[in-house]
Structure formats: C-alpha cells, structure tokens
Amino acid sequence: MTDKFGKGCHLHLIDGSAFIFRAYHALPPLTRKSDGLPVGAVSGFCNMLHRYVEANTGPEAPTHVAVIFDKGSHTFRNDLYDQYKANREAMPEDLRPQIPLTRRATEAFNIACKEIEGYEADDIIATLSCQAREAGGRVTIISSDKDLMQLVGGGVEMLDAMKNLRIDVEGVEAKFGVGPDRVVDVQALAGDSVDNVPGAPGIGIKTAALLINEYGTLEELLDRAGEIKQPKRRQTLIEHREQIELSKRLVQLDCDTPLDFTLEDLEVRDPDGETLLGFLNEMEFRTLTKRIADQMGVEPPALPEVNTRGGDDAPETVEMPAIDPDSYETVTNADQLAVWIGRIRERGYVAVDTETTGLDEMRADLVGICLATEPGLACYVPLGHKAAEGEGLFATEDLAEGQMAEAEALEMLKPVLEDEAILKIGQNMKYDAKILKRCGIDVAPCDDTMLISYALNAGLHQHGMDALADRYLSHTCIPIKELLGTGKAMITFDKVPIDKATRYAAEDADVTLRLWQVLKPQLHAKKVTTVYETLERPLAPVLAKMEMHGIKVDRDTLSRMSSAFAQKMGALEAEIHELAGERFNVGSPKQLGEILFDKMGMEGGKKGKTGAYATGADVLEDLATLHELPARVLDWRQLSKLKSTYTDSLQTHIHPETGRVHTSYQQTGANTGRLASTDPNLQNIPVRSEEGRRIREAFIAEEGKVLLSLDYSQIELRILAHIADIPALKQAFDEGQDIHAATASEMFGVPMEEMTPEIRRQAKAINFGVIYGISGFGLARNLRIPRAEAQGFIDRYFERFPGIKDYMAETTEFGKKNGYVQTLFGRRIHTPEIDAKGPRAGFARRAAINAPIQGTAADIIRRAMIRMPDAILGLPAKMLLQVHDELVFEVDEAAADEVAEVARGVMETAADPAVRIDVPLVVDAGQGRNWAEAH
DNA sequence: TGATTCACG
DNA sequence: GACGTACGTGAATCAG
C-alpha cells in the first residue's frame, strides 16, 4: 500500500498536449527509418520527458507525477458555446497517428498517463491541483498555458519548462495585473482569440485588470457597469454582458472533474529499463536509446534491420525485395484475415486498394480489397467475384468459390480502416474512400501517394500509379488490359478469376506501399510538407463528400432543350447547304474549309499542320462580314456544342438512384493547383451566351432549398496587384473601384467619369493579358488591332505599373534557376521547358508567369473549401461544386442568408493566417431556385 | 489516336 | 533577326 497523499508530498502535473505540440513544431517531420512511420513528435516528446526526468532527481524531486492529456474533441464548453476553439487549425494528419504513441511513451517512462473522455487536460489538472492543495501538498504544473494560471497559489506553482521559469503568484500578477483568484475575471473580459473566447470587444488584458482592480470582481463590475465614466467602455460592458458571462464560464476550470484514479496512484515510479529501451528501440531513436542505456549502465539493444533509406537527401530509388506477383496471398477466410489485421495493428499503417466493377465510384460495386504492410508482403481479399463457369441464366449471378462473405470481411476490417492510430495509404485514395463509404466505412486517416507526387512534382510528370511505378520503382505494373481486355469484349473485374486477380490487385497495394516509402520522405527534403499537409491531404475528403452529394439536375428541362436545339439545327443545316450549293457534313471542319476556301474562293484560308484549313470561331467571325454562310455555321456550331456536350450528355450522367449528377474532381489534374472536373465536367457549364446560360436552369435545388453561389471577385488580378506590388492597382481595389476602368483611366489618362465601354474593354483585355504573360502579338489578335498598336499599349502599361515588368522578369529568372516557380503558399509548379529552344521556351515562360497567380488563387479557394465543412457544421447546407473561383451550395431556403454570410467570411479570410494579402478579397453572393438565378 | 473545336475560369 | 505566341482545363467529333 502506498502512503496517503498529504503534507510533504509534491505533485508534478505535465500538460501532455503542450509537450506534443511543442515537440511537433520544434522538429522536422522525422519518419521511422525502417518503414516511414511519422515519429517526429514522438521523438521530441521522449526527449522532453527524458530531460524532465533528469532534471528532477535531486532532493527537490516530486513524490507524485502524471502526464495529463486531452481526450475527445467535444467538451462541456462546446455545449455552452458552439464556437469554442472553432478557429483552431485541424490537427496535422501526420501528427494524428503519433498521439497514441506519446501515450505509450509516457507509460514506457513509467509515468502515470491520464485522460478522461470529454474533458480537457486543463480540467483534470485543475481537479488534481485542488485535491492536492486540500490535502496539504505542493503542486507544480509544468506548462506555460496562461489558462492554468488561475490555479496558482496556496502551494500551487507553474513551471515553464522551455524557459525554465517558475510562475508563482507574483508571476501571475505580472502577467494579468490581478491575483490568480481574479484571473478568470480578466480573461472573461479580455477574451482569447486562440480558444475563440469572445470576451468584451475592444477590451484587452490591461483594461480588464484596471476594471477588476477598481470594482473587485467581475460580477460587481457588471452590476455597476452604469457607473463607468468612459461612454464607450460603459456601453460595451452593458451590451455584451451575456457574452462576458459566457466567456467566464468558458475560461473557468472545473475542479470537480470525475476522476477514475486517486492522487496516490500518481506516485513516482522508477522506469523499467527493458520496457523503456524496448519502446525507444522500436521507435528507432538511436541517440536517445544509447544515452539512456549508458545512464542505466546496460548495453543498448540492437536496432532492427534498417533500410539504408531516409534522411534529408532521400534517394529516389530504394532497395526493396523484387516485386513478385506469385508471392501474394489470397485471403479466403476469417482466420487468414485476422492474421493480416494483426500485422496491420502491429505496423501502425497499411497500404489499401479496392477492386471494383468500374471507374465510376457512384455506380461501381466492390469486388475485393488488397492490403500491404511491407514491400513484398501483400494480400488480396476477394469478395464479389462471380463464378466463371456456366453459361446462360446462372452464369453471372453466382459468387465464385473461395471467398469470404463480404459483410463478415468488412466488419473485421472496419475498426482498422477507421482507427485513427492506423494510417491508411492509397494511390488516389478518394476513389477507394468513396467505394468504402458506400459500404459504411469511413476510412481515416489517409496518406495518398498520388497527392504526395503532385505536391512534389507538379509539372514534371503525371501522377498515375503506372507512371510512378515506372519512374520511382523501375517496375512496369501488370496492365489492367491483360485482365479485362479492351473494347467490346472487355469484362468487369468481378469476372476475373481470383488467382489472376490476386496477382494484379495485391501488386497494386504492394506498389503503393513502396511508392509511399520512396516519396513520403521527399516531402520534407523538397520543403513541400506544408503544401501536402494543408492543401492536398485535407482536401480529398472534402471533395469526396461534394462528389457524393452531387447536384440535382432536371431531366425534363434538358430533354426539352435538346429537342429545340435539334429542330433549330435542322433548319440551319438546310440553310447552310442551300448557301453552299451542295450537301456536306457541317460538323466536319475539313469539308467546311474546302467549301469556304476552295469552292467559294474566300480569302484568307490558312492551312494548319495537317493540311486542313483552319475554321475556328475567330476565322469564321472574320468571314461572317463577307458572307452569310460562316455566320450560319457559327450558329449551328453553338447549338451542336450545347446539345451534344450538355443537354444530351448531361442526362446520361443523372444517377438512377439519387437523381443527381455526381462529378469527379481530379485533384492532380491541373499543374497550377486548380482542380479539374470530369464525368461530367461541371466546371464548363455555359454562362457567357444567353442561349447557353439557360442550361444552368436545369441545375436545381431540392424542394424547400435554394442554390447559393459565392464567387471571388477578380481574385487573380488582386493577387497580381499583391505579388507584383502595384500601388495603383492595390489602391483601386482598396477603394472598391471598377478595376478595368481604373486601369484604363491610369493608362489612357481618361477620367473615370468619362470612361467609355470601348476604352474599358481594351484595358480589360490588357489586364487579362498580363496574367497570361502578355505578348504584343497575342493582345493584337485578341483586340483585333495592329500589332504595333498593341505593343504600344503594353509599353504604356509597363510604364505606368513598373512592378509588373519586374515581376515577370523575376519569375522567369526564378523558374530558370530552380526549375520551378511557386505560389504564395509554397506550392511548386515545375517549368522544365523554360530552358528549351524555340517556341517552346515562350510557352514555358508565359506559363511560369501565370502559374504563381493562378496557383495562388487555387490555393486560396482550396483553403476555404477545407475550412468550410467545420464552418457550416450544424447549418442546413451542403457544398456541392467548385468552379475555380466559385463555390455552389444547396441550402434550406430559410438559412440561405446566414449560410451566405458564414461562407463569405470563410472565403474572404481563406488566406489567413498563412499569408497576409494586402488587397481585400471580395466575394459576391447570389441565390435562387436554379444555378442561373444564383450565379 | 490525334487534331480540331469550343465550353468554362 | 526570325521564330511564333495569350494562361489553365475536358468533351465531343471527325478523319486516318
């Protein structure tokens, strides 16, 4: 039995979360050498614990000690105030799997490790401090968190371990201007932006302390607020009384947390050398293992076999066992699967790949799951393979022999796939996550080799698995064609024999795991960890949700439009044939060119590389002044486009069960960081022409809801003004002026009041030209003016806004020197062609000038999208679409205005706090029953 | 399969 | 001095 805690006892309480975050941010993202598991924070945490133990061995040593952690994200404070800690950045994904390891580390040091579901560490610390104080003992809280300062006094002190600074009653008074017993009063008034405690607007710690010292307590102050002399202060306190009282309840720590342990349980214990060294060795912390072994006077345990990979100069190829498809296991029963689950739990991570009947995640069915825990160690769990034998009626209905029941397998895998301590690694995980979501499994946390590759090497190469395996593993994957065939005879994966499927499928998981081991360490070496962790990794689940929601599209509207278009096209076609004097395929540019230039002898026919005449819209527009035929062809083409690409094709994309259209966003599609939308592309629904815009009327909200559209106003020009630092443009944006008119005024010396649409149009073309890496030729063609005149405009523009020319020169220079350019958020876009000879260099140069601007805008809306789900949590709203600078939501009609303001706030502040853009970001909002009305 | 055209930001 | 050019996408269609 241990002695009762009491006089003469000294309790140390360590704020575990503070240790973890300090450790995480102080160290580079180290990974365990043998397998790439992120362990940077664990390493820092262990070092801090070790230093703590070393420093507390003398006569002043504590008699009791515990490390206290937070547990669960929802506490009673969230019930009081739903915005409590709402502005916290989400925990970095590579930190999450390390949290359980810090618990194990604490236990390995044989220090009590305590947490209670639904309570903050601070409340547990408060409760223990109170108990220890009442028992007559001393307490030292190892933390610098000012929220804990209210506990100081009566034998309780704090210790800032970093600065080795003791904080007693005087220390608290120095910080807050009041004693510990009044700290909560001051905090209630001053608020706290970190925890999002509102407080009283305009009152900081200084003023708060002044007021509390004058009135004694917060309650007294609020009751007698009318006596305050300063009118503004008086008004604030009266108006915000409720908010202030709420704030006090938020900052007041709870001394009555129900504990499932006693002070006596926290008695200091000597560490067990074997346990401690075993843990440190398992983490592969060589230095610390050796140091502690030396101190204990024992031999350090031998490190496990380690690959020679890792470190800052991680090589691009890694020694691994050869890929051997014959070595993979087919899992056919629960016992086998249990072995794999054990392996995964032991490892802490697993590469996962799903096999399905198709490429459309909303319609494809699960056929099997592959797992890999180390290079060469992979399996395939077939679940939905159909019996290959048998003709006729029963052939495709029967499941093949030798498969687990799908429900049973998923039930076993679900706890692993959802375990936040087990990292799931995939190649294009969004696909697999959506398939599994439809099976009732929320896969998390995830790492994605495709996204890692994109963060590392956008612009250098594509990021599909076959290409990555070729490049980084020198391995050619089994082509899917070999299993499925091509064209009409193509079969679906469920018809592939299981033995063949195992070879192919398990290889995918094996390759994914290998790619992860090669690519993940490069993130840090190439300084794009932040890009991956803040712009890529957290976006994927947001996109998955949007895609699964889909948007409602009215089939009848589209169908009616298709018929109308068909009718008009028929009439136009007859007219065109009449004008041409013969029948031909209007849809064939080749035939059209021959009619126009050979038969009818029109001037200006230019042939392209293939020997065909160019008949693009700009050519036809010029010819339209001479003859009626090209004008009719333009009309016909517009209708043809609208019909085939939109009104016809969109109908085929309406999901039979949801009645909605589910696009797919390709996160690695555009080199600049923009998304691409496919199957169908919902980022190019017509809007510029009146006729086309009507297609948007078919995109509707559910009954009782509206579509809400928010778009950034001129975001790229604002970013240009910021990056190139153009005072005149910045001022125009600050003042909310019409930016194209302001540009025109500045360039041509026309006062704003006398601006004409024509002059403004020219300035607008130049503004866009600048973003695209302007050239005299390009501007001349766009504005249809002589090249010399266009060049004159550009010269004048550079003269008026000299920063632009500097930006262009510096960016080109940077691209040449480094092989890439970057956005304000550190995203890298590679520019390998910039050193090429000939016209290619021109292309690359302009792309390099454009990329930081377009890419920064893309980063900003990504940040907004990542924050949006939390911001609209609890509101009856769903984010459905992204169109580069626009987000579309579906919202209960009654809540539309509120959601619009919340979402606008998120979008306008999306760059904060990472980047301070010194031009305001402005978001315009619209709502309506359909997308045409909302836009 | 590649080139052409055209829808969007 | 000539080269040839606006930036970023996806889908449908024709023609080989």
UniProtKB/TrEMBL annotation:
Summary of the function given for this chain in its UniProt record: In addition to polymerase activity, this DNA polymerase exhibits 3'-5' and 5'-3' exonuclease activity.
Domain 5'-3' exonuclease: 6-269
EC nos: 2.7.7.7
The protein's enzyme class: transferase
GO molecular function, one term: DNA binding
Any coiled-coil regions, as ranges: none
3'-5' exonuclease domain segment(s): 328-524
Keywords: DNA damage, DNA repair, DNA replication, DNA-binding, DNA-directed DNA polymerase, Exonuclease, Hydrolase, Nuclease, Nucleotidyltransferase, Transferase
Pfam families according to UniProt: 5_3_exonuc (PF01367), 5_3_exonuc_N (PF02739), DNA_pol_A (PF00476), DNA_pol_A_exo1 (PF01612)
Family: Belongs to the DNA polymerase type-A family.
Gene: polA
Name of the protein in its database record: DNA polymerase I
